[in-house]
């Protein structure tokens, strides 16, 4: 069938040029195979991974021209023959797909039934569009902290959406959080929300203050969305036997300032974290249970993705510019054009 989607003609390191090159075009959508469903998209989100993708700096590359977007919400309008696909007929779903021949910045998409989560009526399309990745990531990371037995954690990019989910889930589990932000106004905003430990990594005594706090609170786990020299500064500030989980590369630079002697003599560790691998590891049955739990948290208002703007899909350039200027302000959503 024919549909419309945003197309990226070429990967471009310069984000402004990449944004300018995005265009809404007519596309052909393939019918669903046995284990797939065809969705009419109701909302799609822009995440940091989408920005990295259009710049050619992500671990997923699609053949060009490519449809960007990995996460969104939709309604199943046609299902393949498998039992799992058939069970989704007519359902509202949240989904995450890194398939090479589609993307969520589109009016329609064909995806694996396994990449879809059926959504309850009380969850809006907007929240559903941001449900498949970040809440699960934060949930899995807090489970890791519980397994590690850490009483306190350190996290950077703390003014972003995962930062907020981690704080909320940590509080439920009586885990203290040392929040690192990169702007003074973010430090003030998080303190005003009642967060006790907030540091700005641009302030003069940042590393000293972080070291004092992380030893005082015994923060033996850290979640690092940045990379670059901040990773090394955080690891250095942490106590013995600390683990830094690297889960994002927002700084766009290789890790540096890693304290070699701390790794050798203080048993400090750097590990990667990737939510897709976690999903594969826990298996379908447990994933379904976690998914129900996350929908409970959203439905009862415990967690909510902050949304700073909704744009028609054809206005993708303006949407992404707004997001890039203030990522901490919340997600921007692309809505199918109603023309
Ligand atoms: N590994 C996984 O499985 C997994 C899963 C989901 C997400 N992620 C990653 O998690 C990270 C956070 O995602 P999100 O959805 O929470 O993002 P978000 O809500 O869009 O917010 C991004 C946050 O990062 C800050 N930031 C941007 N560039 C930065 C830099 N160079 N150094 C430090 N902070 C920076 C932003 O601050 P400003 O407002 O100042 O720009 C903002 O507070 C991303 O890297 C994403 O790719 C990883």
The biggest beta sheet reads: 7 strands, mixed
The CATH superfamily of the largest domain is known as Medium-chain alcohol dehydrogenases, catalytic domain
Task: Please count the helical segments.
Answer: 12
SSE pattern: EHEEHEHEEEHHEHEHEHEHEHEHEHE
The number of domains? 2
Radius of gyration, rounded?
20 Å
> According to CATH, what is the class of the largest domain?
Alpha Beta
Q: Calculate the mean pLDDT score and round it.
A: 97
Which geometry do the CA atoms define?
globular
Per the CATH scheme, the topology name of the largest domain is: Quinone Oxidoreductase, Chain A, domain 1
Number of strands: 15
Tell me the distance between the termini: 19 Å
Determine the structural class based on helices, strands and strand pairing.
alpha/beta
Helical residue percent band: 25-40%
- List segments where confidence is low: pLDDT < 50 over at least 5 consecutive residues: none
Architecture (CATH level 2) name of the largest domain? Alpha-Beta Complex
The kinds of small molecule bound in this structure are: NADP nicotinamide-adenine-dinucleotide phosphate
Strand percentage: 15-25%
């Amino acid at each position: 069938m024919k549909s419309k989607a945003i197309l990226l003609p070429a990967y471009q390191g310069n984000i402004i040029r990449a944004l300018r090159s995005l265009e809404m075009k007519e596309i052909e959508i393939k019918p669903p195979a046995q284990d797939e469903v065809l969705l009419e998209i109701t909302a799609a989100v822009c995440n940091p991974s989408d920005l990295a993708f259009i710049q050619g700096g992500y671990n997923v590359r699609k053949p060009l021209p490519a449809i960007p977007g990995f996460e969104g919400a939709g309604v199943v309008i046609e299902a393949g023959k498998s039992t799992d696909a058939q069970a989704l007929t007519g359902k509202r779903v949240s989904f995450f797909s890194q398939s090479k021949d589609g993307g969520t910045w589109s009016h329609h998409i064909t995806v694996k039934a396994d990449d879809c989560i059926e959504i309850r009526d009380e969850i809006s399309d907007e929240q559903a569009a941001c449900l498949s990745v970040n809440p699960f990531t934060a949930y899995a990371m807090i489970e890791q902290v519980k397994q590690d037995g850490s009483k306190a954690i350190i996290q950077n990019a703390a003014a972003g959406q995962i930062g907020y989910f981690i704080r909320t889930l940590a509080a439920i589990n009586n885990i203290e959080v040392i929040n690192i932000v990169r702007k003074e106004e973010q430090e003030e905003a998080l303190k005003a929300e009642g967060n006790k430990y907030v540091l700005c990594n641009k302030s003069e005594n940042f590393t000293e203050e972080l070291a004092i706090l992380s030893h005082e609170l015994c923060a033996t786990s850290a979640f690092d969305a940045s990379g670059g020299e901040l990773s090394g500064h955080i690891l250095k500030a942490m106590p013995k036997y600390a683990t830094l989980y690297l889960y994002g590369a927002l700084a766009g630079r290789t890790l540096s300032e890693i304290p070699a002697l701390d790794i050798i003599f203080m048993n400090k560790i750097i590990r990667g974290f990737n939510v897709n691998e976690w999903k594969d590891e826990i298996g379908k049955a447990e994933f379904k249970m976690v998914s129900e739990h996350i929908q409970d948290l959203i439905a009862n208002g415990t967690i909510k993705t902050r949304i700073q703007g909704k744009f028609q899909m054809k206005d993708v350039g303006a949407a992404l510019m707004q997001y890039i200027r203030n990522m901490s302000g919340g997600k921007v959503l692309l809505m199918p054009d109603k023309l």
